[in-house]
Amino acid sequence: MFNVRENEPEYARLRKENSKKVNQYGNPIDTVPADDVLCGVSLNINGDAQIGENPDRYKQHGFYFNADNCIGCHACESACSEKNDVPSHFAFRSVGFVEGGTYPNYQRLNISMACNHCDDPVCLKGCPTRAYTKFAEYGAVLQDPDICFGCGYCTWVCPYNAPQLDPVEGVVSKCNMCVDRLEVGLKPACVSACLGNALDFGVIENTPKNRTQVKTEIPGFPRTDITNPNIRFQQVRSTQRDMVRVDETAVKYHKNDGTGQFKPELDPKHGFKREWNFKRLLGSHENAHIAFTLSIQTVMGAFFMIILGSWVGLSPIAGFVKSAAYLPMLLVMVVLTSAGLFKLNMHLGKPHRFYRGFYNLKMSPVSREIAGVSAFFTGLLGYSFFALFDNDFASFMQIIFSLLSLLGLALGGYFMYKLYRIPARPFWDHWQTATSFVATGLTLGGSLLGVVALVFGAMTNDLTVLLATVISFGVLIECIGLFGHAHDLKPANSEGAVSFYEQTTTYGKSYWLRNGLLVVSILLALSIVLSGTSSVAVFGVLVVLMLVASIIGRALFYMLVIPTTMPGAFFWRNKGFVEHAREVGLADMPQLGVAYERHHKFNINELIETVLSTSLEEKIAQAKRVFTG
User: Fold this and answer.
1) Do residues 148 and 163 make contact, with C-beta atoms less than 8 angstroms apart?
2) What is the pTM of this model?
3) CA separation for the pair 431, 264 (Å, rounded)
4) How far apart are CA 572 and CA 453, in angstroms?
5) Helix ranges restricted to H, 101-251
6) From 3.40.640.10, 3.40.50.11190, 3.30.70.20, 3.20.20.100, which CATH number describes the 1-238 domain?
7) Long-range contacts of range 367-370, CB-CB < 8 Å, 24 or more positions apart?
8) Over the stretch 40-97, which tens digit does the pLDDT of each residue have?
9) Beta-ladder partners of 435
């Protein structure tokens, strides 16, 4: 248990006072009934079975931030990091700011933010390993890094950037509400360290002494309807009508004079020049997701065409199944699926914990996607194995495994889409995500069938026309989705408008290249359909165009998403500065708070040098370091 100092100041101690029954979201403040079996259970902090005597132990607690008092000294960050032994390259609590106006009427508004221990924590629902728990004690949302396997999905769904994925260790950790201090009647370390009396803590909705407001929003704070966060604000001083972020994100917050609320809007701080930025686009951290989604959706599309075509008696598909290309096609699909799954698994911070992805089938779309894709892959393997035999039992087993694959395809494909419908990421939270995934299955699935048929001499005019028709339909779906996406995002009052702006400027040339390739592709595909025949060269060009357009499109999908997160500063919590520091070597200076991503890196050259130049004992030790990052 945490040791209380004899001279602990009064401001560091929790208040004992009457509280309300419900909060501003209409949720009860009591976390459990007074006679609940959970009452009187130890949190077993540091192995200590003692139970805290706080009379408000089973009420929802939260932070209180007085924006008028915050001077941006970062003492709260330092106290939190020292108590929790947090590395220099990330922090559980951080201070960012927004600013507005011009000299002499310039204004800066500092915002200190950690986990808000929400009423409806989306991190808990999204985590596939069940590393999160919302405790009855204090309503704290706690996370166990020893359970986490480093997928980072919680960092996607949280609107406040509270969970932190350590790029070195490869696991997530976050603010723990200092429950060890709460158990002995002390406020969290960050609150006790605040110089300006800007931070406070207690039962939610209780107004601290000498404070008058308990607002749920201030300029720069993301929307509250996603998770119902347990933080309250005071901000009495008038602000400018437009408060601008100083980090790379092209967002400003505009005040609605009628409601007094600030909503995010586009701040075109990067200008309107179109650029390629291919290096950033194709060299992102999310390349594993690009490879996984494209490969799995391609195989799902191709397999669905083969099974459906065989069942309904499409002669081009039936001819393909009887040709010399059939077994190689199954092998290619197995290899592509295996490669996609391997690439995604090695992207995890802790790949050896991959099996934990099935832990949260009850709530997590990630767990459900993993289960669905695993079922699809199992069915594909079984179907492919029994395709080697020509007897009634093998045919029966192929039917069984094809049904399993189709079930996995439906579930895996649906939850692959659902896991990206994240309210905290408006660019993804659109039906265009579904059209993009379906279009990939049709266009690349049809392309894969065509390539294998061409290589093994099984391409007929009928099969060519059928595949070109499927590809045309896929491109049409893609174009409809892209048009609807642009139509809805461009005028949006959200970070989605900023994503659209980045799409047409920072990556503008790449974006229009992709669009041009789609137009040329559908014209080529339609020419094949209308003529009823095609040369190998024409179909080959069509396949190449579709592959390039799909890779660029999927890379844009991951690069352009801008979350509804907290504002950073010029350097700290600024994505642009982090990328710059890693590129030029500034990340070697720990005082800048930037680290290289090491947890999933494997350097074969370093391993070879280790083997050739050291003793056996040193070889073993260094090889371990290479594999573990």
Assistant:
1) no
2) 0.90
3) 22
4) 53
5) 122-126, 153-157, 179-182, 189-193
6) 3.30.70.20
7) 367/128, 368/411, 368/415, 368/418, 369/412, 369/415, 369/416, 369/418, 369/419, 370/128
8) 788 888 788 888 878 889 999 999 999 999 999 999 999 999 999 998 888 999 999 9
9) none
